[in-house]
Amino acid sequence: MKVIIAGYPKTGTKSLTSALRTLGYTVYDYLENFQFLCNDWEKVLTEGGNSEDFYRMYNGVDATLDSPVFVFWEELHRTFPDAKVILPIRDEDKWIVSLKKQCKQIDDHVLMKFYKFFTPTGRKYQAFTQTWVTAALGTPLKTAFHKTPVNELLYRTRYRQHNKYVTEVNHLLYYSKRAQKSNKFRWSMPTNCWCIKSRTVGNHCVNSCR
């Protein structure tokens, strides 16, 4: 494991995935965490886990991010202490708007509702989502045909608390998402830095952890 992304969903994780894959990294984003590690994450989220579990899950993977990784970023870093930790930072108001927009898109997607209700993989996907949302955000989901609950006060509070805690940890990498339609990113620029270069998201320089 080389890179652990500690940020919430909707903070530029898909652009980070694209940049890291352009660099040749093996990346486990949300779909890979579901497809390859669903049963492992169900156990961790419901019963707990340890470094042996995380090592088995991510040995050979270069980078991981999104849900439910951001909840357990610190445990992952204890398992892979040489990995760099990146915290994506996005303006809170823009973040909550983006999150609510995604929830509405999910609610309005009729075919997705039937997929998650009537197919084995869809039901497994819904159960996986229910488990991590309940653990991370505190708002349990019901069936695919129920409206996605959005407790804005709770979500904002969790978002602030998470970012505050992560930024207090030493050896941290972070970037801020610009409020621009270009969807590019502004990285912090210390003395020591390394750069991600990608046609998709441009050139980005990142603090060195070491």
UniProtKB/TrEMBL annotation:
Give the residue range of the signal peptide. none
Coiled-coil blocks: none
Q: What is this protein called?
A: Sulfotransferase
Task: Write down the species.
Answer: Ciona intestinalis
